[in-house]
Amino acid sequence: MKLTSKGRYAVMALVDLARFDNINPVSLRDISLRQGISLDYLEQIFSKLKRNNIVKSIRGTQGGYILSKNPNDIKLTNIFYAVDEKVKTVKCNKEIKRGCNGKSTKCITHDLWDELETHINSFFENKSLEDLINNKKETRV
Amino acid sequence: MKLTSKGRYAVMALVDLARFDNINPVSLRDISLRQGISLDYLEQIFSKLKRNNIVKSIRGTQGGYILSKNPNDIKLTNIFYAVDEKVKTVKCNKEIKRGCNGKSTKCITHDLWDELETHINSFFENKSLEDLINNKKETRV
DNA sequence: TCTAAACTTGACCATTTTAGTCAGGTATGT
DNA sequence: ACATACCTGACTAAAATGGTCAAGTTTAGA
Question: Which of B61, B69, B52, B73 is nearest to B10 (CA)?
């Protein structure tokens, strides 16, 4: 049960981005340097964040990324969903009609894992980017 | 962020075991058949559960495993710890003095992941095997 | 207009983890 | 003695992870 780098990096990068003003775009290069995340890897992550309308990109010199919405409207759920960081406690997929062990019934502890999933997701649904930056905002020099 | 089979199987197997009386030992073969888990894999798992004093083994014909303690005293935490299913949200280890990104400070979202870890662990600490078997006990035929 | 900064895309890959299998044992009730 | 069941360690195929690399396109500013 562990969080992957992709999910962690996505949140770290967005917090970094949000801490700087969201009028001037922030380049991935800056984020990469400040947070110690590989630039190439960040590009993969931001491509997903963009597709999911969490950030907007501005190309060219002095370009970069800015948030698409208010930090208060970006929940961890949204970020994780965007980068495919899913909370998966059971192997079985809801679309598959068969149960959890390949048997016809759901496994003996199915409800437990469902409950766990809900428990974890509620944490993510209640945390927004705004909560994470607090009053730690900085202005780009 | 997903639960591994080892953790899931351990809990499933123990719930299965607990649902039958804990005086007559239950063989892994039975659990394997009922829960659809490979016998060889179960043996690996139970060897860990035994080392962590969650189950006792009885060898020979009619042998098997029984719980070492009352189902109420076996928390999910204990089970997961036994089979190395850890909740890990940050890469950095507490023993390593350096921060999360190989930098000297802890990463910008460190506290968040700590909070998440606590949130998840509290779920595991408050669930016992007893909670999972409820009044679903069965008697071996 | 030229150039460098920055985004964009897709392929590729080494390492680690997962989820087991396999092949031998040893102990014990009947 | 023999079948049942525990016990142990080595091995491995497949997937996931955590990236790198290469080759673009776009645009601001000199």
Answer: B52
Helix H or strand E segment including A138 = none
CA→C1' distance for A6 and D20 (Å): 16
The verdict on residue B141 lying in a domain is no
CATH code where residue A86 lies: 1.10.10.10
Q: Are B92 and B106 in contact (CB under 8 A)?
A: yes
- SS (HEC) of B95-139: CCCCCCCCCCCCCCCHHHHHHHHHHHHHHHHCCEHHHHHCCCCCC
Q: What is the pLDDT along chain A (141 residues), one digit of tens a residue?
A: 999 999 999 999 999 999 986 678 999 999 999 999 999 999 999 999 999 999 999 999 999 999 999 999 999 999 999 999 999 998 765 544 556 766 667 788 999 999 999 999 999 999 999 999 974 554 443
| Segments forming the whole domain that contains residue B56 | 5-133
Provide the domain count of chain B.
1
B134 contact residues in A (CB cutoff 8 A): none
